[in-house]
Specification:
Keywords: Dioxygenase, Oxidoreductase, Signal. InterPro entries: Glyas_Bleomycin-R_OHBP_Dase, Glyas_Fos-R_dOase_dom, TAT_signal, VOC_core. It comes from Rhizobium soli. By secondary structure, this protein is an alpha+beta fold. The protein has a single domain, classed as 2,3-Dihydroxybiphenyl 1,2-Dioxygenase, domain 1 (Roll). 21% of the residues lie in helices and 31% in strands. The protein has an 8-stranded mixed beta sheet. An 8-stranded mixed beta sheet has the order 6-7-8-5-11-14-13-12. Strand 13 and strand 14 form a beta hairpin. Helix 1 packs across helix 4. The radius of gyration is 19 Å and the shape is globular. The relative contact order is 0.19.
C-alpha cells in the first residue's frame, strides 16, 4: 500500500492532518541525524521504570495487538495454563499480559492506568513505526510535541492507554531549577515521516533497545500521590506543584512517573477483579538504595511484601509497585 505524508494520519483515524499539524513549533531535521545511545537516557538513571503487567480479558487478541502494533516479541508463554504472556524487545521483558477472562472492564473514572509509554531509541524508529501503524491502520487517538519529546497516543482493544514516543537529547531540555519545560503542542508528523520511506513498511519488529520510558497513572488525590511517590519512594518532582497532576523522576529525567485526577478525582481503592494495570516495576541501579528504601518502609510502618528479587508495595489506590534491583 502506498501512502503520502498527508494521508498517513487519516489512515490511522485522524480526520484532518492539517489540524493535527497546525502550530507545530520545532523542526527536527538536524536532530534526526544524531546517534542514539545504546540505551535511552531514561533507563540509565538511578531509578527507572522497567516492566508493567496488565490484567486482560482476551489474552489472544491483546497479545496480537501488541505484537502487531508495536512489534513486541513473545519472551515467555505459559502453554500449560495459558494464562500469561510476557512480551518484550531484544530479549528484554517489558509487558506482562495476565488473563482474567471474567474481569469487568476498569472505568476511566477509577484510579489506575492512564497510559504506558514506550520509548523509541531515536526519531527514525518513531518515523518507521508511524508508517507501520498507518499502513496497518491501527487507530491513533492523539499526537503531541512535548518540547522534551514527540509523542503519539493510542488505546489498546481493552481500553488501556498507550504512548509511543522518542526523547530529544536531554542536553537540549530546558530546566529552570528543578522544573523542566514541557509543552503540549501540535506534532509535525510530516517532518517526522520525511526521514523514512513512506511507501513501504520497514518496521518489522520493535527495536532491540525499545523500553518503557514512563508510566502515567490516574489517582484520586494529588497530595496523596505526591506523598507516596515523592516523599516515600523518593522520586523528585520535575513540574512543580500542580493541583491536578504530578510529574516525578530520578536522575533529572523529564518524568518516569506521572499521575493526574483529570477524570478520577476522589477515586477510591481499585478493584482487583477488574482489568487494567496489575503492577509496574521501578528498578534501582544500586542495591544499597533499594535496601535503604526497604528500611525506610519499615521505619514508617508501611507494609510491603518481600520476594527473592523484589519488593511489592501498594500505592494509596491499590496499584502494586514492584521495586526491583535486589
Amino acid at each position: 500500500m502506498t501512502i503520502t505524508r498527508r494521508n498517513a494520519l487519516k489512515l490511522t483515524g485522524v480526520v484532518s492532518a492539517t489540524a493535527a499539524l497546525n502550530g507545530a513549533l520545532l523542526a527536527e531535521g538536524t536532530i534526526a541525524a544524531m546517534a542514539a545511545p545504546a540505551l535511552p537516557f531514561a533507563v540509565t538513571t538511578p531509578v527507572h521504570v522497567d516492566q508493567a503487567a496488565l490484567r486482560v480479558r482476551d489474552l489472544k487478541s491483546m497479545t496480537a495487538y501488541y505484537q502487531g502494533m508495536l512489534g513486541l516479541e513473545i519472551i515467555e508463554q505459559h502453554d500449560v495454563s495459558g494464562d500469561r504472556v510476557v512480551l518484550g524487545a531484544g530479549g528484554s521483558p517489558l509487558l506482562h499480559l495476565v488473563r482474567s477472562a471474567e474481569a469487568a472492564f476498569e472505568t476511566p473514572g477509577s484510579a489506575g492506568l492512564f497510559h504506558i509509554a514506550y520509548l523509541m531509541p531515536d526519531r527514525g524508529d518513531l518515523a518507521r513505526w508511524l508508517v507501520h501503524v498507518a499502513q496497518r491502520q491501527f487507530p491513533i487517538t492523539g499526537f503531541a510535541d512535548h518540547s522534551v519529546s514527540e509523542a503519539v497516543y493510542l488505546t489498546d482493544p481493552e481500553g488501556n492507554g498507550v504512548e509511543v514516543y522518542w526523547d530529544r537529547p536531554h542536553e537540549m531540555w530546558t530546566w529552570e531549577g528543578e522544573v523542566v519545560t514541557m509543552g503540549t503542542n501540535a506534532l509535525d508528523v510530516d517532518d517526522i515521516v520525511a526521514t523514512t520511506d513512506i511507501n513501504r513498511d520497514t518496521y518489522t519488529k520493535a527495536p532491540a533497545n525499545l523500553r518503557i520510558g514512563h508510566i502515567h497513572l490516574r489517582v484520586g488525590e494529588i497530595d496523596k500521590a505526591r506523598a507516596f511517590y515523592g516523599d516515600l519512594i523518593g522520586l523528585s518532582s520535575t513540574r512543580g506543584t500542580r493541583d491536578d497532576s504530578g510529574f516525578f523522576s530520578s536522575g533529572h529525567y523529564h518524568h518516569h512517573l506521572a499521575f493526574n485526577t483529570w477524570q478520577s478525582a476522589g477515586a477510591g481503592m481499585r478493584e482487583e477483579t477488574q482489568t487494567g494495570l496489575d503492577w509496574f516495576s521501578l528498578e534501582f541501579a544500586e542495591k544499597s538504595d533499594l535496601l535503604a528504601l526497604k528500611d525506610k518502609l519499615k521505619q514508617a510502618s508501611v507494609s510491603f511484601t518481600r520476594a527473592v528479587d523484589h519488593i511489592d508495595i501498594l500505592d494509596p489506590w491499590g496499584t502494586n509497585v514492584r521495586l526491583t534491583g535486589l
